[in-house]
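Sequence, structure tokens quoted for completeness.
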Amino acid sequence: MLIVEDNEKTAAWLKLYLERSGCEALVCRNGARATELADETAPDVILLDLMLPGASGFEICRHLRATSRVPIILITARSAEHDRLRGFECGADDYVTKPFSPREVVARVKAVLRRTADEPREPIAWGGWSLDTGAHEARAGTVLVKLTRVEARLFGAMLKAPRRVFARKELVVHMFGDEYEGTERAVDAHIKNLRKKLDGAPGAASIQTVHGSGYRLVHTDGST
């Protein structure tokens, strides 16, 4: 577990509660050092503050997502919806706003770890795509797309039920589990990221917006 938090008191409380829950926790108080520590220690989860000296949490999150699928939970006092959506667009798995209870953060961490442990391992295929759920990689022909854990869960749910329209509420459960209490707009941010990646494979199935209802996976020409 890596805690990236420049506030000494907040970092100490998080470390204490996480260690009491059975997690090993390392604290980093400088954004510029965070990515190096993440590479060196390979943590199971990263708790990442947005306002950091050296580099912002958004920058760190984007950098980590370029090379890693480690679950990232953002922790910040910036509670506006556009900040949450920006965090999800950078690849974050969850978002906790200050002030918060350390017990709440521990619960979020455990929920992320449970989802990671419960991820299916069987391959799924439809519409020219095959998804390796264990490696979080999708392939269409010669195109290989690396996904985050959340993107893999989202794409996996749609591949298992192609053409079906998924409401945002349903996709939230597939992505984050029943305990998620954040905004459903997070789905839109992850769909946006996923579409950018899938667009690199022309001819394979794509995600269609069904206005007023949600999203579904269809053939590239839009046919169902």
